[in-house]
Structure formats: C-alpha cells, structure tokens
Amino acid sequence: MKRILAAILAAGLALSLTACGGNGNSSSSGEGESLKEITFCLDWTPNTNHTGLYAAQALGYYEEAGLKVEFVQPPEDGAPALVASGKAQFGINAQDTIAPALIGDAALPVTAVAAIVQHNTSGILTLSGKGVDRPKGLEGRTYATWQNPVEQAMMRYCVEKDGGDFSKVNLVPSTPTDVLTSLQTNVDSIWVFYGWDGIAAEVKGIDMDYWAFSDIEPTFDYYTPVILANNAFLQEDPETAKAFLAATRKGYEYAIANPREAADFLLAASPELDKDLVYASQEYLSAQYQADAEAWGVIDPARWDGFYQWLWDNQLLEEEIPAGTGYSNDYLPQ
C-alpha cells in the first residue's frame, strides 16, 4: 500500500510530462466542437481485454458522446494509483488486487464501475503429461508465484479442496512475461488468463492442461478485469462518466457481435501484436465480455461481496470490507 501511495505522488509528475489529459477538461475538435478530455489508464500493454475500448474509439462512439479519450500505460504500481491521483478518470484493475485499497486510512478514492469480462477466466496452465490437470497434481511440481498472499491462499485452497498437500508444491518466485517459453523450462505451472495465454497455446499447437479457479470454487468467480473510476470525478461529473460508459458499452457490444472486425481495430492500434493470436483470442473473449449477464458491464453484488467475504474469513484483509463497497452499477446505461 505504501508503494501505491508513493505512485500517486509520482503520477502527477508523470502525467504532466506526457501531457495526458486532465480532469474532464474540454478541448476543441477540428470542427470547433467542444469535447471533454478523458484519460483512461490501461492495466497492461494493449490486448483483447481492451478491444471494446479501441472499437469505441475507432467507430467514433466517444466523439459522438462528446468525449476525447486517450489511452495511457499504467505507472509501476498500476492503474489504481493513477486513477486515485485524479490524473486519469478511468483505469483497469481487478477485484482481487484492488481489495487492500478499499479499506483503512490509506484507502484509495476509486470505484469499480463496469466489468470488462463477466466471469473469472483465469486458472492454472501447464504442459500436458505432467499430471497437473487438477489442483492435487501440483504436488511435487513447481508453480511460478508472484508471492501475493491472496494468490497463494487461493492456490492452497484449491489444492487442499482437491485432496492435495500444498506444502508439497514447489513455489518458485517468478512473474513470467512469456508464459509458453517459461513452461518449457524449470516452471511446471503458471496462473494465466485463458483468453490470452491459453489461446496462445492453442494457436501454437502446444498441448496444455488447464483448470479454472471458478470451476474449483464458485466464490473465486470474482471480477477481473474491471473499469475503475476516480470518486471525485464520479461525484463532480456523473453525466460525463455515464456518457463514457455508454459509449464503451457500445464498443464492447460491437466486439461481441463482430469479433474479427473489432480485432482489426486493436491490431491497427498495436500492430506489433501477433495477428493470429489476436483473432483467436478475440473469438474467445467476445463470448465472455457479457456472457450470461443482462448487459455488458453489470457487476453482480452477490459475487462481488462473496469474494471479499472469503478474503475476510480467511484472514487476508486487515479489516472487513462492508457489503456493497468498491463498486457501482449506477453509471452504466439503465
């Protein structure tokens, strides 16, 4: 948390140097129309989680809503720091990693206002033939851990629920940037999001085993990733927040209906991406953005609160997060 707060102080300088937007300030388009500037902080380099954003921009949905949106990369400690600082109105994070920032004297002024993907699509990926097609199979195998207490508690829970002994799992501190290469070295298993790394294995024809956290424990079907918003911005300019989310929903709805065309917008913005991977990943994720929800972006209170209750019950929080804390559906189109 100290690192997050330090990043808030640094974010102001970083954004001033890169001239990245402001607090919903107005600018003039080439046709003399006044557009409100929105800075949106990604959680990582552009990928198919972000396709709806790029589709909304390319199709002119933001401009139609009176907005000029700029996408920026996150500071070292992630989008929440930048959003909390007020230098970005919106950003991306996940429900599990934002939990510590919602409580205590150092709580960050951010709120999750939309679910980018409706269900948790993360799990454990490993090369086929190593017997890790189930949690118990991790016994005697190496797992690349980023040494996060919530991460390791979830891993322990899954292994023990499957009848395994978590003490027999060899935890190797590592944050692989190339998952498939790492799995062919001294690491047997890695926590991944199937829509990217799992699909990458399919595209490359590599036989993999995979199990999802939400299949082992329904409580682990939490929201990741989500769109965060700055609380002061929401309070001071709710109509602009609603306009942004309405246009963003249109972008994701387009991606749901038109996976390949939407993928082309992402590739145009980031031509360095592997085209085959982007197309295949987009086909998968376009069915996951909304999934079984009534509309894109909606956050289910029971699932949101249920995961935070699990964190509290397992002594992973310094204080309990009250039900209804940290999210809002009020800014989505009704």
From TrEMBL:
Residues making up the signal peptide according to the UniProt record: 1-21
Keywords: Signal
Residue ranges occupied by any SsuA/THI5-like domain in the UniProt entry: 47-262
GO biological process: thiamine biosynthetic process
InterPro entries: NMT1/THI5 (IPR027939), SsuA/THI5 (IPR015168)
Pfam families according to UniProt: NMT1
Domain of life, per lineage: Bacteria
Lineage of source species: Bacteria, Bacillati, Bacillota, Clostridia, Eubacteriales
Protein name: Thiamine biosynthesis protein
